[in-house]
Amino acid sequence: MKEILRTTDPTIIPFSTALLRAEGIDCFVMDVHMSVLEGGIGLFPKRLLVAERDAFRARAILSDNDVEGLVRE
């Protein structure tokens, strides 16, 4: 798995997930339950991971849609 996105914005992860799944790219959100530890203040970023074979295409899709928080290699 390859990390392609890291953000504390709660709206970017669902939007990015929807974009990628619409293109047939499976993705996995990490650190979803960190809000329990932080008290819901948005201190810890959530990460979006995809398979290594899909990473280039996923970055291109998110970049084309002006998604902020992309992790560069």
TrEMBL record:
Domain DUF2007: 1-64
Segments forming a coiled coil: none
Pfam families on file: DUF2007
Signal peptide: none
InterPro entries, A to Z: DUF2007 (IPR018551), N-reg_PII-like_a/b (IPR011322)
Protein name per Swiss-Prot or TrEMBL: DUF2007 domain-containing protein
Organism in which the protein naturally occurs: Amaricoccus solimangrovi
